[in-house]
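Incident log, structure service

09:12 report received: a user says their structure output differs between two submissions of the same chain.
09:20 pulled the input from the user's history:
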Amino acid sequence: MRREIIRAGVPVTTPWNDDFQRIIRNFVGDADASLTGAFSPALDVEETEEGFTLHIELPGVPADHVDVSIEENVLTVSGSRDFYAEKNADEFRRVERRFGTFHRAVRLPDRVDPEGIKAGFKDGLLTVSVPKAESAKPRRIEVSTD
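09:34 re-ran on a clean worker, output below:
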């Protein structure tokens, strides 16, 4: 029995191609991108039975330059990182870090308790704890034997 292998060509422009290009630009840097202006810090979201924890990398950002807010279940982290205050930009031969304003917005599920949100900042890492509403937490239901 003979089997034929059909090879389909990959289109030149695909959503995967755009994602791949974005990943490469983030990894090796985008030579055309300005190092000042808006940027998005790296963000991790962790979920447990008790709630969600967001870890946002903000190295070199003082805590008083960070704002955390929530409106209509959208948690927003914003602020700014200033260029070296005591340095002259002309003295640098290479600058890869981003400076200027930053902004990240994360839509939270409806099952969170916005009144219980807490934020802490240590060693350039912002940690935001978002508890789940009591109605969203798993609970055991007793089975009756009537």
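09:41 both user submissions now match this output. Likely a transient worker issue. Closing.
09:42 reviewer note: The chain has a mean pLDDT of 80. Residues 48 and 132 are 9 Å apart (CA to CA).
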